[in-house]
Amino acid sequence: MNDSRAQVREVGLRDGLQMVKTILSAEQKLEWCRRMVAAGCTEIEVTSFVPPRIVPQFADSDEVARGALTIAGLHASALVPNLKGAQRAFDAGLKKVHYVLSASNEHNLKNVRRSTAESVDDFSNIIAARNESGRQDIKLGAGVATAFGCTISGHVDEQHVLRLVETLLKAGADEIAIADTVGYAHPGQVRKLMRQVLALTGDLPVTCHFHDTRGLGLANVVAALDAGVRAFDSSLGGLGGCPFAPNATGNINTEDTVFLLESEGMRTGIDIDALLAIREQVASWLPGEPFAGAIARAGLPKGFVSLTM
Ligand code: COA
Ligand code: ZN
User: For residues 235-266, b (16+ Cβ closer than 10 Å) or e, as one string?
Assistant: First the structure.
């Protein structure tokens, strides 16, 4: 990816939908995917392989993953919390699987019912399962959640996050994601941590995952850009949050993130007007859910020229 391109990965179908009351049909989820691809957003985390009793929204994860694989141009990925989830994702045929653990041991215990150290061990098991299956085409991303602070335990030590990144790289991660699960990060902290993360990752892709809980989401994107990050997770209409982290709220908003990146001279390949139309459609499916975002409210500035269009 050259310097003037940035990647936006839609996580509304996963991070967004895990928080909403209405259960969408698999067909609605796939329609959302199809329209995102037509708008130029080809990286989508389409579902999460968790037990349906924990997140009923994802009882159809298999169907959604298989359906997503038939959409031309879509690079579909899914979140998995453990080896069983990873095996289900491999069986569905996905080529990108995102594993998540938390830097905060307390959040990890709440989220996946085991310690961070146990989750690190499970990542090695997932790498081994991928290697044994002969499916070297499957890329395994590793995400560090609560990397900037935790609503349960508070401060998260930067050196601890960096050691986790090193461990995950050593285990064989193909991508690293650094997540501010609960919206505690501020720009100075992001710039400092992400510079050090990029020094460890070399040529491997690195994605930042921000939530806008305290209004600093897009400021943190700018700070991550300064540090050299060129890939971001975001959610249409800013839906999202972790059901297992108190007071978590939505991701940074996809429409506003694309607007910011294009304004900063980064080509995203994504049509903002098309995103606004998809947002309207998705909002009509999810009555009563909080859809955030400035561009949907105020419109694009007169004369704004997207690098993509
Ligand atoms: N998908 C489907 N079923 C799964 C599964 C998965 N990923 N992981 C475990 N199970 C099943 C097991 O097979 C077992 O089934 P059984 O009772 O029929 O034998 C049962 O669930 C319990 O397995 P166990 O390994 O003890 O899981 P657990 O109850 O300790 O739960 C997690 C662990 C990780 C599955 C659960 O905490 C979880 O899904 N967390 C994710 C939360 C989330 O989505 N957070 C937001 C995103 S960051
Ligand atoms: Zn998130």
Answer: bbbbbbbbebbeebbbbbbbbbbbbbbbeeeb
Contact (CB, 8 A) for 151 and 182: yes
Task: Tell me the one-letter amino acid at 43.
Answer: E
What tokens appear for 271 in the block? 């049509």
Residues with CB under 6 A from ligand 1: 18, 48-51, 54-55, 81-82, 84-85, 88, 100, 111-113, 242, 244
pLDDT in tens, 68-113: 999 999 999 999 999 999 999 999 999 999 999 999 999 999 999 9
Tell me the three state secondary structure of residue 154: strand
> How do strand 96-102 and strand 139-145 relate by DSSP bridges?
parallel
Residue type, 186: H
The residues annotated as belonging to the active site are: 242
Residue 91 CA to its chain's centroid (Å): 22
235 vs 211: CA distance, rounded Å: 9
Walk me through the domains of the chain, giving residue ranges and CATH numbers. Answer: 7-298 (3.20.20.70)
The answer to whether residues 261 and 6 touch, using CB atoms and an 8 Å cutoff, is yes
Listed residue (143, 224, 219, 237) closest to 181, CA to CA: 143
- Is residue 50 within 8 A of residue 17, CB to CB? The reply is no
Report CA(132)–ligand 2 centroid distance (Å): 30
Protein residues near ligand 2, an ion, with CB under 5 A: 15
Contact present, 61 and 13 (Cβ < 8 Å):
no
Q: How far is CA 302 from the centre of its chain?
A: 31
- pLDDT tens track for 202-242: 999 999 999 999 999 999 999 999 999 999 999 999 998 77
What's the whole-model pTM score?
0.97
